[in-house]
């Protein structure tokens, strides 16, 4: 096995961080000098700034995106035994968070073109116990707000958005996180807006929900040593908030860079559709912020997904799979369904491959990736 660095890495965060390194260092220095580490000024500033950028009034920073969902559901009034609809092909954290809220995740299939939740399939999953739906804005593309609102209104459901991959994505006049009662974001380092560790946030327009969320994240205490809720310790620390405050003004440009890279991929990959290389469909135009650029290797291809991934690695191209197993086929979560229950999700998980995508990815690198795909198909 070669120890040489990849010719095209899957992610290169240094291209974002190097130009603003001095700003980040100064923000961190200020936190250290002031000794303001937990629930301080930097966090309050970031909560307000990110909420405003997302088109809502309030933000509550927590330790990670999973906590943003789990505590957020609790703050929304979800009770033990309530059913919550989620897509089968989401990252397992969505299901884990529902279970942490003592609710029951009800899986539904996805649209095979977009990989987003299939709201037609969700119709048959609604019961008298269904209290909410969690649309996952997967890969940087939002679920249709109009269709989602129609669905939720018909069934009197809470919309709680999982926007962990959709920072400032937009569709049909809505920003990610502004459609429903609340939304959860992750600031894991490789996200479009990433911290230097774990981090998350709930955003909402509901002032009462905001106060309850702030209480829940801080041991269930609205004031020191007074515990009115069964909460936990889940707070976005000020060092991470300071880093995110520096990065947030650049996010729109970084998202545009991703969109431009995706458009170049789209153009170069168009002739390969007849050979079974099909990008996940974009139904959001410029509103898709391409946290990931994902292709499907369909049955028309001369090779399968795993073989293509291996061949690309031989060419120095790093790739990923998001995700190789749907939730109900994970060993720990087989009680959520049986093989064959969600055929589109199961097929996609065998076909999808995430190509390199990050701000600063050059056209030359994208062309190198596509050439390697062509060579792999023809060999």
Low-pLDDT stretches are none
Q: How much of the sequence is in beta strands?
A: 5-15%
Distance between the first and last residues' Cα:
21 Å
Q: SS-based structural class?
A: alpha/beta
| Order of strands, widest sheet | 1-9-8-5-4-2-3
Mean pLDDT: 97
Measured on Cα atoms, how large is the radius of gyration?
Answer: 21 Å
Number of strands: 12
Could you state the order of secondary-structure elements as H and E? Answer: HHHEHEHEHEHEEEEEHHHEEHHEH
Coarse shape: globular
Q: Which features characterize this protein?
A:
single chain, 379 residues, alpha/beta, seven-stranded mixed beta sheet, three-stranded antiparallel beta sheet, 13 helices, 12 strands
What does this protein structure show overall?
This protein has 379 residues and is α/β, with parallel strands linked by helices. The protein is 37% helix and 13% strand. It is built from 13 helices and 12 strands. Strands 1-9-8-5-4-2-3 form a 7-stranded mixed sheet, with helices on both faces. Helix 5 links the parallel strand 2 and strand 3. Helix 2 packs antiparallel against helix 9, helix 4 packs parallel to helix 5 and helix 4 crosses helix 8. It is globular and about 70 Å long. The two termini are 21 Å apart. The model has no long low-confidence stretch (mean pLDDT 97).
């Amino acid at each position: 096995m070669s120890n040489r660095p990849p010719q095209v890495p899957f992610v290169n965060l240094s291209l974002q961080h190097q130009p603003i390194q001095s700003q980040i260092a100064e923000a961190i220095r200020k936190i250290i000098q002031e000794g303001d580490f937990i629930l301080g000024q930097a966090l309050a500033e970031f909560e307000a700034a990110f909420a405003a950028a997302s088109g809502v009034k309030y933000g509550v920073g927590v330790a990670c995106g999973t906590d943003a969902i789990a505590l957020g559901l609790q703050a929304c009034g979800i009770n033990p035994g309530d059913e919550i609809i989620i897509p089968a092909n989401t990252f397992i954290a969505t299901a884990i968070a529902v279970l942490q809220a003592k609710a029951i995740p009800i899986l539904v299939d996805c649209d095979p073109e977009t990989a987003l939740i299939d709201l037609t399939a969700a119709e048959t999953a609604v019961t008298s116990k269904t209290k909410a739906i969690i649309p996952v804005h997967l890969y940087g593309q939002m679920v249709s707000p109009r269709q989602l609102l129609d669905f939720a209104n018909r069934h009197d459901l809470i919309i709680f958005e999982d926007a962990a991959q959709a920072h400032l994505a937009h569709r049909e006049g809505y920003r990610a996180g502004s459609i429903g009662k609340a939304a959860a974001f992750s600031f894991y380092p490789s996200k479009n807006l990433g911290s230097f560790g774990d981090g998350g946030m709930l955003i909402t327009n509901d002032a009462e929900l905001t106060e309850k969320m702030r209480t829940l994240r801080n041991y269930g205490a609205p004031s020191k040593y007074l515990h009115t809720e069964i909460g936990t310790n889940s707070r976005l620390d000020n060092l991470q908030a300071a880093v995110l405050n520096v990065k947030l003004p650049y996010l729109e440009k970084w998202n545009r860079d991703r969109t431009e890279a995706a458009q170049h991929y789209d153009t170069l990959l168009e002739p390969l559709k007849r050979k079974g290389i099909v990008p996940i469909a974009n139904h959001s135009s410029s509103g898709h912020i391409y946290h990931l650029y994902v292709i499907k290797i369909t049955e028309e291809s001369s090779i399968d997904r795993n073989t293509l991934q291996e061949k690309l690695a031989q060419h120095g191209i790093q790739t990923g799979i998001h995700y190789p197993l749907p939730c109900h086929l994970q060993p720990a979560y087989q009680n959520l369904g049986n093989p064959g229950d969600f055929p589109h999700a199961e097929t996609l998980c065998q076909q999808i491959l995430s190509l390199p995508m990050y701000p600063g990815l050059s056209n030359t690198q994208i062309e190198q990736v596509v050439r390697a795909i062509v060579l792999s198909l023809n060999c």
